[in-house]
Structure formats: structure tokens, C-alpha cells
Design goal:
single chain; 579 residues; alpha/beta; 6-stranded parallel beta sheet; 21 helices; 42% helix; disordered C terminus
Length: 579
């Protein structure tokens, strides 16, 4: 079958998010044909090039989300009126509150709102969104219209309308301009020429690798051509927007309006997708909270390469029995401060204990946080020496992968008797799964999908509780037999649930399930322009090239700018990008 793979800031770009699992998925499903539709986030990402593409990727079409030139389309009076009606309806649905509960500003299902009112608002938002999409298709784009003064005035009217969100009524002109610019960027996929019969309209299935803008082209392909949509979320886009829009990031009115828009968009995506595949129960709960039907949700854990950890996992334990190891990205969400305070308690019980922190900082904030942690470690643990003539050493070390002490990632995990995760915010804990592949006993904080991943094969403590973290670490340091049992159970669990093979097999089954229940029905015409019965044989869904009578697919009145042929994918040389 032909799969339209939809990405935002990810595959096939070298620096993309979730690019690795997408590449493994495409390579693992060689019996299918993939067309990649990628939204880029920056010029730097585009300049970095693509990863080498396998032969089953037939073509790649890209569009930038970080910039867009005015389409130059001069809209007539009728078109402007049609735009005002559709955009006004969209904004009215965004600004309308569903109740007094905390979900009223987010677009999520509110316990204080009746099901009828929630459904009515969802229908209102969806109808307006598809109305804008049809207008963009008919007129050649809406970039200029979404940036216009008319768009700002429409937003102001929606904010001042009776029944609008209380916070939205307080929006000032700078707030309106900020929100209008954000909505134009988020709705930019409406103006793309991806939805014709030579684009997503020819796909048997659209697979969005994230929610939000990445899934919007899939919604439109479903609307225009009836192509079923599958949405995978390993990190929930709506949650990411909530975290990004903190009190210091934007004014209250901006936060409320953007939260409401992304909430409505997420609800529409979850409502229209044939199947949703969250990566863990944490993401699943978010989707259900936003109205996703449980019957259409299939949890598919991320697939990880277990082979790189085989040597460590199967060989005898050579780790220092007194060493704790932390591995990950150095950033405030990892809460290394609590880990250092917990280790101070561990040292009171186990004087020979050592802590190795292995990881690189993320951005300027990560650099500053690493410096703070180094200073705290020096304060908590002054350099120790066995005698007056010996050189002192600190029981806490800060290292990076590739250094002499940890040349590879498996070596980092192999160096410790216990692997510790101290995060206060976590999605799918990759480092925890890697430690499990290595057969290591773990101590983790109860955040994100930690409990789901670890099962009963490790110790879990509350976040931001250094004393509980220290007690769990001491318990494992003092009991080598228990460490061995937990490590063996953890490795067995990881091999069962989190391998690349498990991930690929799950998606292959879901692809077949969706296509069998939701086949795309296309009207095909013969040379005389008459409908051609049985023009698409059953063999068309079998791998291989099939020929039949001379025929053409009925066009859907796409505008002239959508008639161009897509560019075939050309793998970049190895010197320009790597997996």
C-alpha cells in the first residue's frame, strides 16, 4: 500500500525529532511504498540535509513552517466575505468557553459542559476549519488573508463577543497581533498543494508522526479524498504547547487563546483519526481527556535497538558494586539537584558510594544548570583524601559519552550497579529502557510513563523527594542478589515490549486493519470520460507494480498551483547527513 508519512520538524531531516524511529519504521516495512510530507522548523534544519533514504521512499515533499512568503493572491469581494465567515466561525469556537471548569480554556472535554454543547463546539470548529481549507484550495492559498488586518479584527470581535472566555476579553492589540501570527503559522498547511490526486489524495493511508500541524495535512486528505488517518504521539503536542506557554512566556490572554486553539485542533484530530497510537499510558490519558474514543486507541511503545546493549546485558556484571549511574540530557527537568542531595544521604549510610553523572547539557539553559550542579556537588562533597599526602577526589563525577570513562552508551550503563532516574517531567523514559536492556537494577521517580515502562522490575519513588530516593538506592546497594534479580527481570521485560521488531510489527498490523476497514474509494474514468468499473483491482494493495486499462483518476477541481508534479526523493551523500 502507499503510505503518506506526515512529519513536523522530523524525518527525513538529519536534525529532526523522532527521525530515528521513523527511519526504522520505513526501513522495516519494505513491502509498502512511502511518500514523505515534511514540515521543517528552521533554515538550519533544512540546510542540514536529509538522512539517507531507503528505496521504499518514493518521493519527499517539504514545506517550511518557519517562514512563508505572501502568496500574492488578490481575493475578490465574494472570497473575502467567505473567508470572514469561515475564519470568524473558527475564532468563535476557539473563544467560546465550554463551562467553568479548568478545561474551558483548553478545548478539552469539560466535566461542567454538556455533551451536546461540547459536540456542537467541536462541529463548529471542524466545519470552519474545512471551510477555510476548501477556500484555500479554490483560491490558491490563504497566507495573506490569515495575516491581514481583517484577520486581526475578526479575532478582536470573537474576544469581545458575549460568552467568550473571560481571559480572552482582556486581550490588547499586541496580544491580538501575537495570536494572529501564531494562528497563521499553525494553519499554514491549509495553503499547501499536497491534497490533489498526485499527492496525499493518492495515498491509501496517512500516518502522522505527531499531533498538531503534522496531523493537519492528514485531516485535509481525509476531508478531500477520504484517506484514513493514523496519528502517533510519543509526546503529546498539546501538552508541549501548555508547557511552552508558561507564565513568563506570554500574556494571560495569549496563553488562553493559544491553549484553546490547540485544544480544539487536538480534539478534532482525535475525533477524525481512525486509530491513535500513543507511545505510553501517560500520552493515552491525555488523548482520552481531549475526547479520543478508547476503542480507537492502540498503545504502541517506541522501538529501540536492543542489539547495541546485548553484550552488557548478557555478560557477567562487571560494575563497581558501590557506584550509582545517571545517564541523560542535562537540563532542569531531570532534577539533578535532588539527586545530589539524595546522594549526600546515601553517603551517610554507604561511605564508599560513588555517583557518575553521564550526559551533555541541552542549550544555554542546560549549560547554566550543569554549572549549578557542579558547584553544588563541590559544596556537598569536598574533595576527599585518604591521608595528608594523598590527592583528594570527589565522589561525584560529571562525564560525557565518548570520554575515557564512558566511551560508549552501553559502557556508561555497565559502569554502575544501580541506574538512577530523578526527573520531575518525563514522557517515555528512554534512558530507563536502555538501562533495562543492559540488565541493570533501577531507581526511578514516579513521573510520565516510568511505572508503565519499569513494571515491577525496579524501585519507584515520588519525585522531588531526596530522602525516598536515597533510601531506595541504599536498599539496592546493600542487596546484590536483589539487584541481579531485578536486572534480569528488567532485561526480559524490555526485550518483550520495547524492541524495534515489536514496534514495526505493531504498525504493520495497524496499517492492514485500517485499510481493511476504511478503503479509499476513488472514481476512475476511462478514455471516453465514463466511470470505469473495477478499475482498481484487489491486487493493487499487494506489493508490486500492477498495470491495467488506460484510465485516469477523476480530478477534484484543484487550482492551478496544485498541478505541479512532486519531486522524487534523492538520498543525500553520506558526507552530508547520517542516521
Amino acid at each position: 500500500m502507499r503510505i503518506g508519512l506526515l512529519t513536523e520538524g522530523g524525518y527525513p531531516y538529519v536534525s529532526g525529532d523522532a527521525g530515528l524511529w521513523c527511519d526504522r519504521l520505513v526501513r522495516g516495512l519494505g513491502q509498502h511504498e512511502f511518500d514523505v510530507y515534511a514540515l521543517s522548523r528552521s533554515r538550519q534544519q533544512e540546510d542540514g540535509g536529509w538522512v539517507p533514504l531507503p528505496p521504499q521512499v518514493s518521493r519527499v515533499r517539504t514545506a517550511p513552517l518557519w517562514t512563508a512568503e505572501d502568496d500574492g493572491v488578490a481575493h475578490g469581494r465574494r472570497t473575502r466575505r467567505r473567508f470572514a465567515e469561515c475564519y470568524g466561525e473558527l475564532l468563535a469556537a476557539v473563544c467560546a468557553g465550554t463551562g467553568a471548569g479548568p478545561d474551558a480554556a483548553s478545548g478539552a472535554t469539560s466535566h461542567d459542559a454538556s455533551p451536546a454543547s461540547v459536540t456542537a463546539l467541536a462541529d463548529r470548529f471542524g466545519n470552519a476549519l474545512y471551510g477555510l481549507a476548501e477556500l484555500a484550495r479554490d483560491e490558491g492559498g490563504l497566507v495573506g488573508a490569515l495575516r491581514s488586518d481583517a484577520a486581526v479584527r475578526a479575532l478582536e470581535r470573537a474576544c469581545r463577543a458575549p460568552g467568550a472566555l473571560r481571559t480572552a476579553r482582556e486581550a490588547r492589540v499586541p496580544d491580538l497581533l501575537t495570536v494572529t501570527a501564531h494562528l497563521e503559522r499553525a494553519l499554514r498547511p491549509l495553503s499547501l498543494d499536497w491534497y490533489g490526486d498526485e499527492g496525499l489524495g493518492a495515498a491509501d493511508l496517512c500516518h502522522a508522526t505527531a499531533g498538531g500541524p503534522a496531523a493537519l495535512p492528514g485531516l485535509l486528505a481525509r476531508h478531500f479524498s477520504g484517506v484514513p488517518l493514523l496519528v502517533t504521539e510519543y509526546s503529546v503536542q498539546l501538552r508541549s504547547h501548555y508547557l511552552a506557554l508558561g507564565p513568563d512566556a506570554a500574556a494571560p490572554a495569549v496563553r488562553a487563546l493559544l491553549a484553546a486553539f490547540h485544544g480544539r485542533l487536538a480534539a478534532e484530530i482525535y475525533r477524525r483519526a481512525e486509530v491513535l497510537t500513543p507511545g505510553n499510558a501517560h500520552a493515552r490519558r491525555w488523548q482520552e481527556r481531549c475526547g479520543a474514543a478508547r476503542a480507537r486507541i492502540r498503545t504502541v511503545h517506541p522501538g529501540m535497538d536492543a542489539s547495541r546493549f546485548t553484550e552488557v546485558g548478557e555478560s557477567p556484571d562487571r560494575a563497581d558494586p558501590d557506584t550509582l549511574v545517571w545517564v541523560g540530557r542535562v537540563e532542569p527537568a531531570k532534577d539533578l539537584v535532588s539527586l545530589l542531595h539524595a546522594f549526600a544521604e546515601v553517603r551517610k549510610e554507604e561511605s564508599k558510594a560513588r555517583l557518575r553523572i553521564v550526559g551533555a547539557p541541552v542549550g544555554a539553559e542546560g549549560e547554566a544548570y550543569l554549572g549549578h550542579c557542579r558547584a553544588l556537588a563541590a559544596q556537598l562533597f569536598p574533595d576527599e583524601a585518604e591521608g595528608v599526602h594523598a590527592v583528594g577526589s570527589n565522589p561525584v563525577s560529571f562525564e560525557e559519552i565518548g570520554g575515557p570513562e564512558a566511551p560508549t552508551l552501553p559502557d556508561a550503563y555497565a559502569a554502575g550497579a544501580v541506574v538512577v532516574l530523578s526527573s520531575v517531567v518525563e514522557g517515555f523514559p528512554v534512558s530507563l529502557a536502555e538501562a533495562m536492556f543492559c540488565g541493570r537494577a533501577t531507581v526511578s521517580t514516579d513521573v510520565g510513563a516510568v511505572v508503565e515502562v519499569i513494571g515491577g522490575t525496579g524501585l519507584v519513588v515520588p519525585p522531588r523527594n531526596p530522602r525516598a530516593l536515597a533510601e531506595a538506592c541504599v536498599a539496592l546497594l546493600r542487596d546484590p542478589e536483589r539487584r541481579e534479580r531485578l536486572g534480569a527481570a528488567a532485561r526480559a521485560r524490555a526485550l518483550e515490549l520495547f524492541t524495534v521488531e515489536q514496534n514495526i510489527e505493531a504498525f504493520h498490523s495497524i496499517y492492514l486493519e485500517i485499510v481493511s476497514h476504511c478503503p479509499v474509494r476513488r472514481v476512475v474514468l476511462d478514455e471516453a470520460g465514463e466511470p470505469l468499473p473495477f478499475a482498481t483491482p484487489a491486487e493493487a494493495h499487494v506489493p508490486g507494480r500492477w498495470t491495467g486499462p488506460t484510465a485516469r483518476v477523476l480530478t477534484r477541481g484543484a487550482p492551478g498551483w496544485a498541478a505541479g508534479h512532486p519531486v522524487r526523493a534523492t538520498p543525500v551523500p553520506a558526507s552530508e547527513g547520517a542516521l
